[in-house]
Amino acid sequence: MGFHSDSQKNGYGVGGNCVVGFKSLIRRKQVDSIHAKSSGVLGGHLQLAKELSVPHLIAIGVGSTIGAGVYILVGTVAREHSGPALIFSFLIAGIAAALSAFCYAELASRCPSAGSAYHYSYICVGEGVAWLVGWALILEYTIGGSAVARGISPNLALLFGGADSLPAFLARHYIPGLNVVVDPCAAVLVFVVTGLLCVGIKESTLAQGITTAANICAMIFVIVAGGYLGFKTGWPGYELPTGYFPFGVDGMLAGASTVFFAYIGFDSVASTAEEVKNPQRDLPLGIGSALSICCTLYMLVSAVIVGLVPYYALDPDTPISSAFASHGVQWAA
After folding, report:
1. I need a surface site. Which of 13, 15, 78, 307 has the fewest CB within 10 A?
2. Where do the TM regions start and end (predicted)?
3. pTM of the model
C-alpha cells in the first residue's frame, strides 16, 4: 500500500515503471561532434592520447589476426572439413570478413571511440542491445585470446625436442577430478601481453609491431621454403584419389565458417579509434590493409602446407612444423 502511494506521489505506477525501464533500454547515445572530440575533453572525461597512424593500425590488425589462423586452424580444418580446398575456405571467409570490415571502417570513422561495436550499437539501436554486444565482445576476445595462448605450448615443445619434452613447470597438467587442463605457458603469455597493454599504447604498439614483423617474416619463409620443397617433391598433398574437394563443397563451406575465427583481429583496430590521429582517413585504410594482408598470407600458407603433406596426415596442433619435419627439414620446424 505504501509502495502504491509513493508511486502515485512520484507520478509513476507499475505500468509507468515498466515504461521508464523500457525507455532506458532503448535510449540512444548522441553522436559526438568532431569539434567536441578535437578539443581533447568530452563529457567531462579526458580522451586517450592520439598517437596512432596507418602503419600502427596495420601492425595492430595483422598482429591480432595472423597467429590464430596459421598456427591453430590450418591443420584441424584441413583434416576435418576442407582438405586441399582449404585455400578456398580462407578466401570465402576473407570475403565475408571484408563485408563486416567495411561496416566497421565506416562506423569507426564516423564515431571514433574506444568502445568499438558497443559504442556503435549504443548510438544506432540502444543501451539494451549495446549491453549485450559489449558482453559478447568480452566473450569473443576471451575465447579468441585463450585459443591463441593455448597454441604456444605445442610449438614451444618442439624447441625442446618433442611434444612431451617441456620442463615440468611449463608443461600442461591434467587435473583428473575436475577434467581441467592447466597450461602455464598460456597463462604466462596472457600476463605478459596484459602487462604490455598496461604500460601504454605506444609501447604495446611497438611490441606488437616487432612481433608482427617477425610473424610475417616467418610466414614468408614458410611460403618460399615450402614452395621450393613442394616443387622439388611434386606436391604430394595434391596427388590424392579423392581430388581437390574430398569433403565436397559442403566441407569447404564448413571450413570457411570455422576459419572465419582467424579474421576476428580486424575489429581490434576499431577499438583503437579514439587513439588515431586522423580516424576518418586512417581507420578504413588500416582495417582494409590489415585484412588484405592476412587473407593473402593465409591463402598462400594453406596452399603450401596442404600441398606438402596429405591433409589427413597433418598434425592438428603443429601443422606447419610437422609438414616441414615430414620432409626432413627439422631445423625449419
Report:
1. 15
2. 54-74, 86-107, 119-143, 181-201, 213-231, 243-266, 287-313
3. 0.74
